[in-house]
Amino acid sequence: MNKESVILSLVEAAQKEASEPFVAGESVIRYAGPQVDTDAMVRFLKVALDSIISGQLAAGPNVREFESTMARNFGVTGSVFVNSGSSANLLSIASLCAAGRLRPGDEVLTTATTFPTTINPLVLYQLKPVLVDVVLPSYTMNLEQLGNAITSNTKAIMIPHLNGSANNMAVVMEMAEQNGLQVIEDACDAIGSKFQGRYLGTWGDIGTMSFYAAHHITTGEGGAVLSSDQDLIDRSISLRDWGRSVTNDENMQDGLRDPLAQRISKELPPDYEARFTYTSIGYNLKPLDMQGALGLTQLPCIPGFTKSRQDNHRAIYEGLSAYERFLVLPAALPEADVSWFVFPIVVREDAPFSRADITAYLEERKIETRPILAGNIRRQPAYSKVDLQIRGSLTASDAITERGFFVGTWPGLGVQQVEYMVSTIQSFLERY
To answer: Could you give the CA distance from residue 314 to residue 336 in angstroms, rounded to a whole number?
Structure first.
């Protein structure tokens, strides 16, 4: 029996042991999870074993193939695979700062409702985050506030596509062009979502994605920077790798001296190797090669995963639409094709029950719920001493913070689970 056959038999045995029939009220309905089929697991484990035996654990041929395939699939010229979506956001800002397009003190407009890793890189690089509200039920940036928030100090827009919902990128890009602004798209929640037929994460100067286990596709942990700006791609590659002067594997392997590094520094000897020459203050954000192998099996799944998420979202929406007097249900913009990360719900202010009431009811019946992101990030303790400027009211962000929660839409939910989830929510609402 060859190595692949042994791995296959182990995978099939593990799957059989883990597979249990769904029992309403007893089986946990998770809000998210990875979808990895047999072929993907076999490939991943084979590469993992080969990596351990060969000693090639760090980024290698599978990472490079994943990057090139991802760039081609999303229609950009380059992608840089990193160890998390948080690292991708960090790298996007670091690259813009290294290129001199953002400097300490510059204002960056973003939404108050977001995840910490949208804000944290701005704080770390001494940029000034300026918060505007989102709009319900689309969870998109309030474009009226965005337009009013732009000043002479504004240099960029960092726009998260919350819950997978697509912002109106045509308007955002028009504003950016008129005002000379950089655009960073945080598409970590939105892999597979499109606006006007174009993938989110590919509209701006640079975009980011996350491949965490709970996200649209997974490499365990992982993320990526995408761009058609070669300067930003080159800088991202270097910054991912401690700030080395070389930006490709060929130079790394040959140990060739980078002419740019030679011009920058006169302190190093002429024969000093490029792979140990550092021209930027960088990080170690590299993924493992086995993560690239897993990613390669996930990329072809995006269309199918997207359809499953849309089908699940539609079923939940249709099941709850009669109760909109109690709930704000999510809805996409007209030109958006959304791969919903989750199904977000906001309990209306005048509802005869609280968020705590309905989420406790669901959790007792084995249906997982979670708050919507970090809510209004300004209200989180970590940012109490951070200079987060606010331009406009944050009414929707506060409503999300105080009364918002979500349930799952991920492809691992079958028809039975979705129907049980809908009927359970209905049974709670029927009491009022």
So the answer is: 15
